[in-house]
Amino acid sequence: MPTAGEQTPQDDILATLKTLDARISRIEAHLNLEPETEESIESPQLSEEEREEALELRIGQNWFAKAGIVGLAGGIVFLMTFPYSNIPPFVPSLAGYVLVALIAFLSIAWRESYEQISRYLLGGGMILLYFTTLRLAHFTPDPAITDSTLEAALLSVVVIVNTTVSLRRQSPYLTSISILLGCVTALMAVNPFAGLVMLTLLASVTVFGFVRHKWTIVLLLGTFFVYASHFLLAMNNPVGGNVLRLTGGPEAGNLFLIVFLSVFGLGVLRGIKDQEESFGHAVAAALNGGSAFLLLLLVTSLGQHSDVALWEAGLSATSLLIASLFWTYRRSKYSTFVYAMVGYLALSVAIVHIFAKPDFFVWLCWESVLVLITAVWFRSRFIVVANFVIFLMAFLAYLLAAGTVSLVSISFGLAALLSARILNWQRDRLELHTEMMRNAYLGSALFVIPYALYHSLPPGLVGLSWLVVALIYYVNSRILKNRKYRWMAILTVLMTILYVFAINLVGLDPTLRIVSFLVLGTALLGVSMIYTRRKASRAGRTAPEGGEENSRANPPSSS
C-alpha cells in the first residue's frame, strides 16, 4: 500500500492525461478550432414518430404560413384592383396604405415570437405597397393620377424603399421581389432611356447582394429579370400598353447590353475572390454572356439598327476582357470559357457584317487561329475543341455558300497547319495528353489544300501542285524533325499518283500528260532514292561497334 504523500501509478496516468489534454487545448486555441462535443461526434437518431412530428411542424409552421400570406395578399390585391364607381378614386389606395402600415407593425411586433410569419408578412406588405401605389393610376376608369411621369416616380420611390428594407433584413427572398418589381417599374417608364438606367441600377443591386451576402439565387434571378425586361423593351414594350412587335428598342439599348454584361460579369468576379468556382457561378456566366449575345444579335439583325459590326465588336472586346480578368485573377475554367466563347461568337458576327460573302469565311478561318492562341493563354482544352468544331463548320459553310471554290480557300488549309503547329508548340501548357486535336487539324490540311488546288488550277497543273505541296511537307519534316509531316508528304504523293493515273491518263492534253508522267516518275524515283539512303544510313548506325576487329579476329573458315 502506498504511504501518505507517495504518488500511485494511477496518479501518474491521470497527470499524463491532463498534460495531453492541456496541450491539445493549446493547439486547438492556436488553430482557432472549436472543441468537439458529444453532440458533434454523434448526432442523435430520431425515431419514426419524431421524424413525422418534425415534418408536421415544418408544414404547419412554414408551408401554411407561406400559403396564408399568399392567400391574404392575393385577396387584398384583387380587392384593390376592383373598379369602385361610387367612391373617390384615391380611397382604395388610401385603404391599401393603411393595410400596409398594419402589416408592417405586425411584422415588427412578431419578429421575435413568430419569425417565419413576420418575414412572410413583410414580403406580402412590400407587394401590397407596390400594388397600392399602382392602383392610383390603373385598374379604374377614373384614376387618381393621370400623369405617367408622376406615377413612375412614385413607383420608383416604392422600389427604393422595398429594396432598402430587403437588404437591411438580409433576405434574398425579399430582395428578389424588390428587383422584380423594379424591372416592372422600368418597363412602365415613359422615357425608354430612363427605364434602361433603372435596369442598370437594379443590376448593381443584384451584384451588391451577391458580393455582400453570396446570394447566388438572387444573382441568377436578377440577371434573368434585367435581360427579360430589356427583351420586352425590344419587343415594343407590351407592358407599357404597346402592340407586341419587334422594334429593337432605342439603339442606345445596345450600349446598355454591354453595360449589363460588364456589371454582372465584373460583379461575380469581385464576389468570388475567396471562393472556389461553383456550378452556380458557371450558370450565372452562361446566363449573362448568352443573354447579352443573343439579345444583341436579335436586336441588331432584325431591328432597324445601323452599325451592327460596331456593336458586335464592342460586345466581343468587353466579353474577351472579362474572360481575361477571370483567368488572370481567379484562374477560372468555366467562366473564362463562357465569356471567351461569347467574345469569339460576337467577333464572328462582326466579321460577317463587315466583309462580303463569301470572303468573310476566309477571315473566319484566320479568326480560329486567334482563338487558338488565346486558348493557349487560358489553358482551356474546352476552347480548343470548340474552336475546331467551329472551324469545320465554317469550311463546310464556305463550300455550300461559295458555289465555286477559289484559290483563297487554301487559307483554310494554311490555318489548319498553323493551328496544328501551335498545338504542338504549346502541348504542355494545354495539358493535351493525346494527339487527337493536332492530328485533326493536320488531317484537315491534308485534304483541304489539295481540294482547293484541284478547284482553282488548270487540270494540267493540279498534279504538279500536289507534288510541290508534298515537297513542302517533307522539307518541314526535316526542319522540324517531325514524322507527321513525312506521312503527310507520302499521303499527298499517293493522292497525286491516283490523280495522274485516273484523270490525266484520259482527260489531259498529250503534251501536259507527258510532262505530268515524267515529273511524277522522276519525283517517285527521287523519293525512293532518299528512303534507300536513309535505310542504309540507319543500318550503318545500328551496326555493333568493333565489328571490323571481330571480323579480323575470327576470319571465315575455308570450305
Order of helices and strands: HHHHHHHHHHHHHHHHHHHHHH
Q: What is the beta-strand fraction?
A: under 5%
Structural class by secondary-structure content: mainly alpha
For the CA atoms, what is the radius of gyration?
A: 38 Å
DSSP helix fraction: over 70%
Gap between N and C termini: 106 Å
What is the number of helices?
Answer: 22
Structure description:
By secondary structure, this protein is mainly α. Among the domains are: 192-354; 356-456, no CATH class; 461-533, no CATH class. Helix content is 78%, strand content 0%. It contains 22 helices and no strands. The chain has helices at residues 9-31, 38-41, 48-81, 91-109, 115-134, 148-168, 172-187, 192-213, 216-234, 252-271, 279-302, 308-330, 334-354, 359-378, 381-402, 410-425, 427-430, 436-456, 459-480, 483-507, 510-542, 547-553. Helix 3 packs parallel to helix 5, helix 5 (115-134) packs parallel to helix 7 and helix 19 packs parallel to helix 21. The protein is flat. The model is unreliable at 36-43 and 545-559 (pLDDT under 50).
How are the elements arranged and paired?
Elements: H1 9-31, H2 38-41, H3 48-81, H4 91-109, H5 115-134, H6 148-168, H7 172-187, H8 192-213, H9 216-234, H10 252-271, H11 279-302, H12 308-330, H13 334-354, H14 359-378, H15 381-402, H16 410-425, H17 427-430, H18 436-456, H19 459-480, H20 483-507, H21 510-542, H22 547-553
Write a brief structural summary.
By secondary structure, this protein is mostly helical. The protein is built from 22 helices and no strands.
What are the salient characteristics of this protein?
559 residues; mainly alpha; 22 helices
